[in-house]
Amino acid sequence: MATLGVNIDHVATLRQARGGFEPEPLFAALLVQSAGAESVVVHLREDRRHIKERDLYLLKELVKVKLNLEMSVQEDIVAIACKVKPDQATLVPEKRKELTTEGGIDVLSGFKKIKQVVERLKREKIAVSLFIDPDIKQIAAAKKSGVAMIELHTGRYSLATNQNEQDRHFRKLEAAARYAKSKNLRVFAGHGLNYCNASRVSGIKDMEELNIGHSIISRAVFVGLGQAIREMKALIK
Ligand code: PXP
């Protein structure tokens, strides 16, 4: 069984569509916690396309479950994280033109910078996770960078167009989780998970947490956020 982190970026995306004040991401976060999810996840993007700094301060003050901030290693974003002090920071790669986070952060090629940022965030008592592809070399480098946890990118598994392909990516996720655990890393996963494919990932041994955004917010449009979360929690039990 895995716990559930709900990414509420898309509530802010809807707000930004009109540039006004609704829907309010803080209300979404409070519903997320009252519906029983274990964490609220937001991504402060460099272009501020959805979540704003103002949202972070409100969330930090009022959210009582874990607040997980997805962020790049860019200096001004790191400075904001050190000021807000979320419970957890998840380092992700960021390209301005991407629709969403397309792959894991490359810990091998960015090792020096990533290690610096990990150390700086840890000094502020922020737990740090790295969002990485299910790849043994990336996991070994993540361990060396000093993090205690990783989030495996499930994008390829989620985008598989047939059962064989899905099985192949699932086995990679299983092997990655096993290796990470053998290195004493806590294992989370996310990206592209939905009501059809999340349950299988939650069943991976030692999988602690799934982080899901788009699918839950999409379902919430029809059944309400509380119901959408309760349905997902039931699936990943
Ligand atoms: N985990 C991380 C690190 C992410 O960057 C994202 C996307 O913001 C998610 C999980 C959630 O992905 P999705 O919206 O596809 O569920």
Description of the molecule:
The chain has 237 residues and is of the alpha/beta class. Helices cover 48% and strands 18% of the residues. It has a single domain (3-236), classed as Aldolase class I (TIM Barrel). The chain is built from eleven helices and eight strands. The protein has an eight-stranded parallel beta barrel with strand order 1-2-3-4-5-6-7-8, surrounded by eight helices. Helix 5 crosses helix 6 and helix 6 runs parallel beside helix 8. The mean pLDDT is 96. Bound molecules: pyridoxine-5'-phosphate (PXP).
Question: What is the topology?
Answer:
Elements: E1 3-7, H1 9-18, H2 25-34, E2 39-43, H3 53-62, E3 66-71, H4 75-84, E4 88-91, H5 111-123, E5 127-132, H6 136-145, E6 149-153, H7 155-159, H8 163-182, E7 186-190, H9 198-202, E8 207-212, H10 214-223, H11 225-235
Parallel strand pairs: 1-2, 1-8, 2-3, 3-4, 4-5, 5-6, 6-7, 7-8
Helix pairs in contact: 2-3, 5-6, 6-8, 10-11
Pyridoxine-5'-phosphate binds at residues 7, 9, 43, 70, 90, 92, 100-101, 131, 151, 190-193, 211-215.
